[in-house]
Amino acid sequence: SASSYFNKFKAALKLAYKEGLLAFDLNSKIEPIKEAETRKNYLTIEELNSLVKTECQNPLLKAAALFSALTGLRFSDIQKLTWSEVESDSNGGYLIRYRQQKTNGEETLPISDQAFDLMGKRGKGEDKVFKDLQYSAYHNKHLYQWIGVAGITKDITFHCFRHTYAVLQLSQGTDIYTVSKMLG
What we know:
Blueprint: H1 2-18, H2 45-53, H3 59-71, H4 75-80, E1 86-88, E2 94-99, E3 106-111, H5 113-118, H6 137-149, H7 159-171, H8 176-182
Antiparallel strand pairs: 1-2, 2-3
Helix pairs in contact: 3-7
């Protein structure tokens, strides 16, 4: 957001002053940008089920979006996910051990059979799970068309599938601490 970028700029000014690169502390003279209240869109379980039943011109994008709604993973983490990061657990289920693109944190995430099925046929260790998944205006067009054909009128981006995961977890009684850990 503009606020977080501006705060980084202010921190750089403060450091420059401390290091003697600036004659006076410009940071102390600049007012920070106030964070705007934003509305986070998400899908209801009914809307998500509608998307499952609706055809998408880009089946890979559909699978990745639904995978995000079932796992809470960001687009960047889905895009770089390899089969070596997907494991069976001791209970016959599945989990993903991966390093988050954004935070570089090491994460372990149990996933449902439904999420696992969206991954398709298992490939070799370093093969990407969602091979050829791309982010562009062209691919976003397919996302918006798919959502529109499903009858959903909300402004939904790929990141909203991550919000959907969080809201659905909370609505099913998962405590907020656990949800925050699952989101990394």
